[in-house]
UniProtKB/TrEMBL annotation:
This is TatD family hydrolase. The keyword Cell membrane does not apply. Residues 32-53 are annotated as: Disordered. It comes from the Bacteria. The lineage of its organism: Bacteria, Bacillati, Actinomycetota, Actinomycetes, Micrococcales. One of its GO terms (molecular function) is hydrolase activity. Keywords: Hydrolase, Metal-binding. InterPro entries: DNase_TatD-rel_CS, Metal_Hydrolase, TatD-like, TatD/YcfH-like.
Amino acid sequence: MASRAAGSYPAVPEPLAVPGVDTHTHLDICTGARGPLKAGEPAPEVDPSEGEEFPSLDWFRETAFAAGITRIVQIGCEMGAARWTAATVEAEAAAGRDWMLGGAAIHPNEAPRLAAAGLLEESLTEIEQLCAGERMRVVGETGLDYFRTDGDGLAAQEESFRAHIEIAKRLGIALQIHDREAHADVLRILREVGAPERTVFHCFSGDVEMARECAERGYYMSFAGNITFKNADGLRHAAAIVPPELLLSETDAPFLTPVPHRGKPGGPYLTALTIRKLAEVRDTTEEEIARLVTENAGRVFGSWDR
Ligand SMILES: [Zn+2]
Ligand SMILES: [Zn+2]
């Protein structure tokens, strides 16, 4: 992702006929926002470099609306981003813009870094406080990532995942899971401790068998732009069999930009392309998928209306 100025983004696709929803996006990263850090906290892994240009929050809202994406869930998953998210969803709502709800957690790859700094426990306490905000409706993203964390980091990652599950249950809000190459252990831990009532696998990456298991347990499955990737047949087969009442859509922007724009930075507006692909894979209309994911998102995150 060499440049992230507005000019480097893909064009806005034709708008959806029925409004859709992006249930997982990182507008802090998209806008180059640096949330406030406390002494000793590690700098975010995706850190804007000096002088780098980014589109504004207004640009992301306008492009989202232009594509028919009128509701988003902003996710902050390191401490600065978590603070930025809690403040920004409040500020947007106070200004009469009710397009944005929020969620916060310590990302599974971030937990070992905070643990190494001796800050994991107090950070978890703060995540719970931030997630108690009225516009904050999900604890996430948390989970396990065996792709980018290994060795000594794994214990802190699991401790952090278990703590986040408890936070979601105490607050009575949804849980959003990041599961990268860790399907079996994520499912095992959720069974051991008992999953929150509304549990979502963000950027679902399992196969048909995993989708069946999640469906049996009533977990939501949220699909991102990688469902459009050429080599993602397994994922498309999984998306085809998700029960309608458990289906969600997202971007994970600025990452996982859908085909034909793969490799470029993305924004919530590109959820329109993912919704179209879901319609194709499930042999239905984009209107039907847009309606479905909006209804499901309302059940998981509550109302966007103030
Ligand atoms: Zn993730
Ligand atoms: Zn994410």
